[in-house]
Amino acid sequence: MPDSISEDAPRRSWLVVGGGVMGLKIARDLIARGQDVTIAEAAPVMGGLTSAWQLGDIVWDRFYHVTLLSDSKLRDVLSEIGLESEIDWVETKTGFYADGKLLSMSNTAEFLKFPPLSMFERLRLGGTIFYASKIKSWRRLEKLSVEKWLRRWSGNGAFEKVWLPLLKAKLGDAYKQTSAAFIWAHTARMYKARRSGAKKEMFGYVPGGYARILDQWVNVLTEQGLTVRTSSPVIQVATANDGPGLDVTFGNGGTQRFDNVVSTIASPLISKSCDELTSVEKQKLDAIRYLGVVCASMLLKEPISPYYVTNITDTWVPLTAVIEMSTIVNSETQLGGNHLVYLPKYLPDDHEGLNETDDDYKEKCLSTLEKMYDHFSRDNVLDFKVARAKYVAALATIDYSTRLPPIVTSVPGFYALNSAHILEGNLNVNETITLGETKLADEVWPDFVARVKTPHPVANLQQA
Ligand SMILES: Cc1cc2nc3c(=O)[nH]c(=O)nc-3n(C[C@H](O)[C@H](O)[C@H](O)COP(=O)(O)OP(=O)(O)OC[C@H]3O[C@@H](n4cnc5c(N)ncnc54)[C@H](O)[C@@H]3O)c2cc1C
């Protein structure tokens, strides 16, 4: 049982929409407050972006995931479910593919030799990263475009040769609307990783990957009373007209009443799922732009790279990065003696590239790898699968925080709490669950407590 949070509120029924890590964390915290909780997940399995699939003979995450030493909230969850002590921490190396060459960029000495830049440009680039890591408040950065800010601090040379290709690889043309808070959030996370790892970049994973974490977490919560409904997309949430509560319609046509609903799904999907929201709320939800991803998982006989991440600045390469997961995840004990590589391409949510067929993406990936790595051969590939997600991370556009939709909506008992509210970091599991914990405690719970103290008018009539 999680530490119960003593709050003077009666037990009520809650539906949490979305069975990703945000939904699980909110469910956990509501159970700790003595509430009766159900999670509805549209997919047949729990986990959302962290869910796993079969690749060759192994089961591993559909999208690559590592944990940082500084991911304290995530490590708390892992402790609670008995897995934290099993994390395997590994020192990582970072590479760059620039001007047709693979370069190591894992420490300051290597950074100071980075060939595409002059010494002056390298120093300005290094200074920008250091300066970004020292900035405490993102609010000022949110008002400036990332391009303007980087040109100012790194200069045009480093911007054109390094930042621009990286921004385009990660954001496509959406970089033009992105604020400087985006680069601050990325730098801060990577700096934290190094600080907590005594200057070395240490990444960790739980043996068995997220499949094991999710299994264990769901089991623990189920023992504490959680009800889980998989393959249960929520289609509509509406105020009940014959008593208190919200009537929730599921994809199979069934309806169930809950006292409260917390929706953790992407903002445009929240907008669609509740017709009663005001037009202003709907506009705000619909206006949030997301970054999506197409990401191939490739099981290989031999590794292709010594770097966990290879960042790419050559614009002909149609990939955001090459991620050699088996530099972290033990090949012998976890991957059946094989090697696992992810090939992601991030794209704005309305980009047609998100609908590219698996075969086309596969051909693009393999022919690119043949050009990038002399030793790469298609015969090395044991299995190749393509995962996609349209809604991965909300784009940090200019003045983003001033345009966020409310978490406590105008529909009593309906709360819209998703990762789009992350303002102080980039999207990752630790930020997601930290946000879930804080916003549940500061906004959702106080509103719920205030509402239960004010009886519903229809309930009053029925009692009279
Ligand atoms: C390529 C990639 C790499 C990543 N790498 C890392 C990493 O290294 N480290 C790290 O910490 N984080 C990483 N992340 C981020 C991490 O995966 C996310 O922070 C986290 O999974 C977000 O969880 P969530 O619950 O907010 O969203 P989601 O996981 O998207 O969950 C939302 C859930 O809602 C469900 N849903 C949607 N509509 C409905 C509906 N109508 N009814 C019911 N259910 C619905 C979806 O099926 C989904 O399961 C990565 C993500 C990606 C894509």
TrEMBL record:
It comes from the Bacteria. Residues 23-415 form the Amine oxidase domain. This is Amine oxidase domain-containing protein. GO terms for molecular function: oxidoreductase activity. It comes from Rubripirellula reticaptiva. Gene3D superfamilies: FAD/NAD(P)-binding domain, protoporphyrinogen ix oxidase, domain 3, Protoporphyrinogen oxidase, mitochondrial, domain 2.
